[in-house]
Structure formats: structure tokens, C-alpha cells
Design goal:
Elements (H helix, E strand, L loop, with lengths): L2 E9 L3 H12 L2 E5 L2 E7 H14 L6 E7 L1 H4 L21
Antiparallel strand pairs: 1-3, 1-4, 2-3
Helix pairs in contact: 1-2
Length: 95
């Protein structure tokens, strides 16, 4: 099964929902900033992640974005903190 590299970003005004979402995303990826996660997931895990996120957020109040990154884009990620670990070599999604 293909793995995807996904960056997930969120903006939730409610502290409780924001904490719940952060905790949920820790099960799927690595926080690179408080409201930004990098995840390497397969298609089933991505669908599960999105379903579980919908169970935490309030769509009219909260905003979650999923960005998929291709292998070429991943290889160009830069950070002021040094070396970047982005997982395997398969196609990727950023959430």
C-alpha cells in the first residue's frame, strides 16, 4: 500500500478541542509546530484520521487543512533547525 506524506495544520479557537485534536494527531504524526503536524500514513489511515478529526472539530468554528506533498516537494523541505526527517520515499500527503 502507498504511504502519503501529509502536513496537517489547524486553527481552533477552543482550548479543549484544540488539545483533543493535538492529542489525536500525535497518534498519526509528529508535531513540527503546535498546530502543524507531519504524518506518513497509508490510504486507510488517512481516511481514519480525517474521520476522527471530524469527530473532534466544529466545522463552522474550526479550520483544519490537509496538504499532500509529493516526493519531489518533500526533498526540498527546509528548516532552520537543521536536518529534516520526512519518513519513507513513497508519495506523500501534507495535512
Amino acid at each position: 500500500m502507498t504511504n502519503y506524506f501529509i502536513v496537517v495544520c489547524y486553527d481552533l479557537p477552543d482550548d479543549r478541542r484544540r488539545t483533543r485534536l493535538h492529542t489525536l494527531l500525535c497518534n498519526y504524526g509528529t508535531p513540527v509546530q503546535y498546530s502543524v503536524f507531519e504524518c506518513v500514513v497509508d490510504g486507510r489511515q488517512l481516511a481514519e484520521l480525517q474521520r476522527r478529526v471530524r469527530g473532534v472539530i466544529k466545522p463552522r468554528l474550526d479550520h483544519v487543512r490537509y496538504y499532500r506533498l509529493c516526493a519531489a516537494c518533500r526533498s526540498q523541505i527546509e528548516s532552520t533547525r537543521g536536518e529534516i526527517e520526512t519518513g519513507g520515499d513513497d508519495a506523500a500527503w501534507v495535512v
